[in-house]
Amino acid sequence: MARTILTGEAVSSGVSVGKAYLLAKGHYCLTSVQNIPEDHVEQEAERLQNAFNSALQSLERIKSSVPQEQQEHAAILDSHIMILRDPKLRRKTERYIRELLMSAEWALEKGVADVEKGFSRVDDEYFQARANEIRLLTHRVMNHLSGSASSIKPITSRVILVAHDLTPADTVELNVSKIMALATAQGGKTSHVSIMARSLEIPAVVGVENVDTTVRDSDFVIVDGFQGKVVVDPSDEELEHYTNLKYQFENYRREIMRHRELPGESRDGFRINVMANIELFEEVRAVLDYGGEGVGLYRTEYSYLYRHKLPSEEELTEEYSDLASILHPKEVVIRTLDAGGDKIGKGFENLEEANPALGLRAVRFCLKHRDIFKSQLRAILRATQHGNIAMMFPMISGLNELREAKEVLEEAKHELRLEGIGFDEDMPTGIMIELPSAVMVSDLLAREVDFFSIGTNDLIQYSLGIDRTNRHVAHLYQPLHPALIRSIKHVVDAGHREGIEVSMCGEMAVDPYCLPVLLGMQVDNLSLNPQSIPVIKKVMRQLSTEECFDLLKRILESDSVSQSNRLVKENVFNRFPEELLFYSSMLEKAT
Question: CA distances (Å), 274 to each of 263, 328, 490, 541, in order?
Answer without folding.
Answer: 8, 16, 22, 12
